[in-house]
């Protein structure tokens, strides 16, 4: 009899469309506060966003793959030259990298990154899928870029490689968000 009840419950769950999957997170939206993002920097320090940016504007660059990481580096390099008063953070997701290769990936990231940015680069080994869903269809081979206002709210969002036109659009938003 207990086996019959278990089968009935599973059948009912299937008929009702219930599953054990968690609900899809809401996508990142302009004007909303960035959901908490916590991890360790390349240098081993704990960092929690958006709390770390409180009181300052910040740019947060996401990458989910090696190709996305190359775009992230281009964005970070260009923005650190052009937007010195704005703090730049990066979130690099390595959850999908096999554990055996993570030290190599981390060494490659560290080697190609200026020392000042290493303290502001989160290395994340979990919640990769959750954040990809929050990016609402972002190609994992592209970088995602967010401008946060001093309260941690999203003021500008884009994805893809850096371009001069995107840099100008970001500059305009930085001035408008002060």
TrEMBL record:
Pfam families in alphabetical order: ATP-synt_10
Name recorded for this polypeptide: Thioredoxin domain-containing protein
């Amino acid at each position: 009899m207990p086996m019959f009840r278990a089968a009935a419950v599973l059948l009912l769950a299937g008929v009702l469309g219930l599953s054990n999957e968690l609900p899809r997170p809401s996508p990142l939206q302009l004007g909303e506060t960035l959901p908490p993002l916590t991890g360790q920097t390349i240098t081993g320090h704990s960092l929690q966003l958006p709390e770390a940016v409180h009181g300052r504007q910040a740019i947060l660059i996401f990458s989910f793959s090696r190709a996305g990481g190359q775009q992230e580096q281009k964005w970070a390099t260009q923005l650190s030259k052009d937007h010195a008063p704005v703090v730049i953070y990066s979130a690099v997701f390595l959850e999908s990298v096999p554990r055996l290769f993570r030290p190599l990936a981390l060494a490659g990231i560290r080697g190609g990154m200026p020392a000042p940015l290493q303290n502001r680069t989160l290395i994340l080994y979990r919640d990769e899928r959750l954040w990809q869903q929050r990016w609402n269809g972002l190609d994992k081979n592209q970088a995602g870029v967010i401008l946060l206002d001093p309260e941690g709210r999203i003021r500008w969002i884009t994805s893809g490689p850096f371009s001069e036109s995107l840099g100008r659009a970001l500059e305009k938003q930085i001035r408008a968000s002060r």
